[in-house]
Amino acid sequence: MKNLYKALKNGCFILPFVFVINALSSNALQIVYPKTENTQISAASTFIIGSTAPDAKLKINDIDVKVHDNGSFVQVVPLNDGKNEIKIDSQNEKTHDTVTYIINRVPQEIPASMQAALEEFAPDEFIYAAVLKNNTPLRAQPDEYAKRLTHLPKDTVLMINGKKGDYYRVSLTPTENAWIKSDCVVNYSTITQKMLATASQVSLSEDRLYNYIKTDLSFQIPFKIIETDNGLRLELYNLDKNAADTMLFQTSGDVKSLTINSVAPDKTSTYYIELKNKLWGYMAYYEGTTLVLKIRKAPVIDKEKPFKNITIFLDAGHGADDAGAIGPTGEKEKNINLDIVKKLQKVLEDEGAKVILSRADDTCVPLYDRVKMMQESDALISLSIHANALADGADPYVKHGTSVFFYNRESVELAKTLRDVITNKLGTKDDGVGMHSLVMTRPTMPLSVLIEVAYMIHPEEYKLLLDENFRQKAAESIRDGVKEYLLNSVKTDGIN
Ligand SMILES: [Zn+2]
Questions:
Q1: 450 C-alpha to center of ligand 1: Å?
Q2: Which pLDDT score is estimated for 25?
Q3: Distance between CA atoms of 367 and 360, rounded to whole angstroms?
Q4: Span 161-183, mean pLDDT?
C-alpha cells in the first residue's frame, strides 16, 4: 500500500485512472439496468438505464426518450401487476437495435418473523442466554430492518422472555423489551427469576485522546447509550446494586460531571455524563466484566491550520467485484469513488491532515473490516465517499444531487456543513441530509458520515462524475466542508 501511495505521489498511476473513468461507450445499444432481460420487481416502477449512439432515435414502449450527447439515457417505466413487456428500440442511419425486457411485478414479501405468532413466556420465566459476537444489534421489532436500540458485545448476558419466528424477545426492564436474532445468542437454561448483576466500582481516567468511565460488574449486562444535549446518558439493565450510586465524581479531562442515580425499581442504573465540549465520538466495550465507556476528547484546533494534527479516515465505497452503481455508458461507481478519495487525500494532506484510506486501489475490503480500520485509526472524522443510485420505484429526474448521511446525532452538524459547502461549491442540487443506518454511518467513533457526491443514474450528473475537473472540485469542496466544520466547532467549544 505504501509503494502505491508513493507511486501516486510521483504521478505514475494517475494516467490509467483518467483513462478508466473516461472510457467511451460503444455506439451499439447497451442496457446496464435492469441487469437481466427477465427479472422480478415489487415496486410500482423501474427504470431503463443504458447508452446508444448519441444521434440515435430511442423509443421505450413507443415513447420517445432523450439521448444525451454521450449516448446516455435513463427512463422511468411504470409497472403493472404481473408480466410487463418493455420494448427498447434504437435507430440511426447505420443501425437499428431492438431488445425486449420482461419484468414481473410481484407483491412485496412480509418477513417471516413478522408473520409468526408471538410465544409469550410465563411472567417469571426467562431463558438465560449470552451474545455470541461483538457489535450484535438489539432491535425494536423482530425484523432485520427494524430500528437498532443498542449494540452489545460478545458474552453479554440476556434475559429472554418471548419468541417470534427466528427472533427472541429480550427483557431490559419490566416494561421495555428488545429483539435479537435467535442464532446470535447461545442458550444456557430456563430460569424462574431474572439474574441480576452488581457493580462494585466506577472509576474515571484519561489519556491523551480519550476519557474513560469504567464500571466493574459481576457479569456482563446489556446497556444502552443515548446522546443528550450536553453529553451522554448510559443505561445499565438487570443491575441489582451499584456501589457508586451515592458517590461524587471529580471532573476528569473533558468530563464535566458524572452523576449516577440509585438503581431504579426496574433494575436500571442510569449515568448522566456532562461534557465540557460537544461530543466528538464514544464507544463502549467490555474488558472482562468491566464495562468501559470511552469518550473522545475535543481536538485542539489551530485556527490558521485547522487540519494540523487531525486524522481523517477516507473510505472509497465498494471495490473489486463490488462495482457499486453502474452509469449509463458502463462506468463503475467504485472507480469514481476511488478517484475522488485520492484527490481528497492529496488536498487534505496538502493542508497538514493525516489521512488513512480503507482502500488505495481496486481491492475488496469487507465493510466491517473498514469499520475496524476506521476505529483503530484514532481518526477524528470518517468520510465514506459514494456516487448514488436509486431503487426501483423512484425517479432519478426528480431525486438527484448531493446528499450526506449520518446515523448518530453527534454527526448531524458535520453532515449538514458538508452538504451546505459541497452543494454551494459544486452547484449540485441539494438532495438532503438524512439519517440512514449504514455500516459506515453507524460507528459512534469517529464522527462518521457518508457522502453521495452525485448520481450515477442521472445523465447530466453522470457526465459530471466522468469529468476529472468535477472530481477535483468535489474533493476540494469536501475538504472545505470539513474545514468549516472544524473552524465552527472552535467557536462553539471555545477552545484556543
Ligand atoms: Zn455506493
A1: 9
A2: 52
A3: 15
A4: 95
User: How confident is the model over 129-133, as a mean pLDDT?
Assistant: 96
Distance separating alpha carbons of residues 166 and 382, to the nearest angstrom: 34
- How many helices (H) and strands (E) the chain has is answered by 8, 31
Q: Is the peptide bond before 107 cis (omega within 30 degrees of 0)?
A: no
Residue 1 has pLDDT above 60, yes or no: no
CATH classification of 2-8+302-493 is 3.40.630.40, yes or no?
yes
- Is the domain defined by 197-296 classed in CATH 2.60.40.3500? yes
Å from CA of 25 to ligand 1 middle: 22
Q: Tell me if residue 374 falls in helix, strand or coil.
A: helix
Please tell me the predicted confidence (pLDDT) of residue 247. 76
Do 231 and 298 form a contact (C-beta atoms < 8 A)? no
pLDDT for 252 equals 83
Please give the distance, rounded to the nearest whole angstrom, from the Cα atom of residue 400 to the centre of ligand 1: 14
Decide if 213 contacts 258 (C-beta within 8 A). yes
- What pLDDT, on the 0 to 100 scale, is given for residue 343? 98
- 156 CA → ligand 1 middle, Å: 33
Domain spans, the chain: 2-8+302-493, 27-105, 112-191, 197-296
Q: What SS3 state is found at 273?
A: strand
Residue 9: its pLDDT value, please? 34
Please check the confidence at residue 108 and state whether its pLDDT lies above 90. no
CATH architecture of the domain with range 27-105? Sandwich (2.60)
Q: d(Cα 328, Cα 325) in Å, to the nearest integer?
A: 10
How far is ligand 1, taken at its centre, from the CA of residue 318, in Å?
A: 6
**Model pLDDT, residue 26:** 64
Look at residue 185 in the predicted model and tell me its pLDDT.
96
Residue 385 CA to ligand 1 center (angstroms) comes to 8
How large is the average pLDDT for residues 170-191? Answer: 93
Distance 277 CA to ligand 1 centre (A): 33
Which residue in the block uniquely carries the three cell numbers 426528480? 398
Residue 19 above 50 pLDDT?
Answer: no
Separation CA 203–CA 11 (nearest Å): 52
pLDDT band at 22 (very low <50, low <70, confident <90, very high): low
User: How far is 438 from 433, CA to CA, in rounded Å?
Assistant: 14
Separation between Cα atoms, residue 415 and residue 432, nearest integer Å = 10
For the 112-191 domain, the top CATH level (class) is: mainly beta
On the question of a common fold for 27-105 and 197-296, the answer reads yes
Q: Is the pLDDT of residue 493 over 70?
A: no
Q: How far is the CA of 266 from the centre of ligand 1 (A)?
A: 44
Strand, helix or coil for residue 197: strand
Q: How many CB atoms lie within 10 A of CB 24?
A: 11
Give the Å distance between the CA of 326 and the centre of ligand 1.
Answer: 10
